[in-house]
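Sequence, structure tokens quoted for completeness.
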Amino acid sequence: MKKFLPIAMAAVMSMSAVAVSAVSANAVEPLNTPVQYVQVARASLATPKISKAESVYGGVKLTWNKVNGAAKYRVYYKGSKGWTRMVDTTSTSYIDKNVSSGRNYTYTVRCISKDGKKFTSGYDSKGKSVKYVAAPKISKVESVYDGTKITWNKVTGAEKYRVYYKDRTGWNRLVDTTGTSVVDEGLYPAEYNISQGVANTIYTVRCISKDGKSYKSGYDSKGKALTGYKQSIPDVRNISTVSGGIKLEFNYALPENSKYRIYRKENGSWKKLAETYNQYYTDKNVKAGKIYTYTVRGVSKNGKKFTSSYNPSGVTLKYKTTNKTRDEFVNYLMNNQNKWLPHDYGVGMMAQSGFQFIDLDFDNVPELVVQETGGTMCNFDAKVYSFRNGKLVQAQYNENYIQNRLRMYYNKSSKKYEIFGTSILAAGTMNDHSYGQFQLKYNGSTITTDYFGMFYVAYPMNTASGNYEYTYYNGIGGYYSGAGNYKKISKSTYNDIMRSKFTNLVNVHMYSQFIYQTATDTNWNNMSYSQRKQALLDSYDSFSYDKY
């Protein structure tokens, strides 16, 4: 904060620029004290004009024009008692670091002699004013269930914040928000060089105007990255009804020197249930007809420290509940397996065969989504069936397949649920990949997909540069409808398209339990009749998403 001393610049002229002659400027004008001279004689040099006063990282930056013949400049700020000397410099810019966020400051500049003893120009008596807004400081970058969470301090005077991520192309806009944290869900592509290997993304934040059209602060040009590699998050990958209870099976994402801690939701809060080093746990304290929700996270061996984040929504199972529609659907599937079971071409392809239940039209009756091994062009492709009037009806879609990589969101503006997906095309894990973005709509009989963006990654072994090469499009080609009806766009435009689709959406953490046909310890081909039926019931009863 500025210290306003009692001596003011004597005589504030009515003119914008005060004319002076080269008179004494040293003796009784120590640093940080006001100017004490009335100087009205003709100036020998032009008056400097501050062209810009802006908030930058660490203070207010002043920039002014270079004056021909000027040996040095003296910078002043206006306090409660008038103009106060700040610093002498030969530069045409200066950063005032002694400022407080949210406060207004006014500055002026004049020319002085090389020895600082004489004024050689006038000054702008009105000065240049600016409201200083400090650059946000990121306090934490951490792995959470949905991605990478970035948290920063609340800045006094800030209207809105803009978050950026950095890759080989420089700083890229991520999202705008009025809050002090965001989660990067990986919707925006980060480009890296082959020499970088697996690199953590770097983030920074700056303040912007309410309408997002102007910057109000500087930013930390170094940014902040996630410490270490992106953390694995333990999760429930399968929930099933077994003799005497509910069995949970976890994925392999247990952090080093950790164990699993299992929680069950009771009265809206997570209650610790058990701890284990095993990748499974059976909850025997359950009752038929009730609904149970579980989550899991890593904790240290002594149980005193969390070593991972967790799924905030958890995984739910309707345990031995009554549901006539479900039972008729499952019984039909069991008695007519030849009408819907996918072909199995082996496990050498990218996508494995299997099936799951997903409520695509949000009518509380899930559809059966059947995935065939490899599918079209080694993709994650699936057919969709609904159950009506005691019969299985395949949804109409001009490609006969949907991309089985779906995510559900809640639109805060329309107050409706929406489904988006990513199609991945590749001839193999180490070959070029394309990632198509689409919105899926299902009206009960017909599926439509709107492809609004795609980016293509050419792998180093296939490029002349020997590096990864990225290309962006506003649609998609290939075997989809409307092939060729797209054009090349910039990465910035691609990100703008993604923001326009996802800004008002909230991930509702859809859980859909996939039943593998082959290639796992527990798979359809190795199950008995009763086990198959129970697997279908559990998949039906475990489908869930956050309700708003």
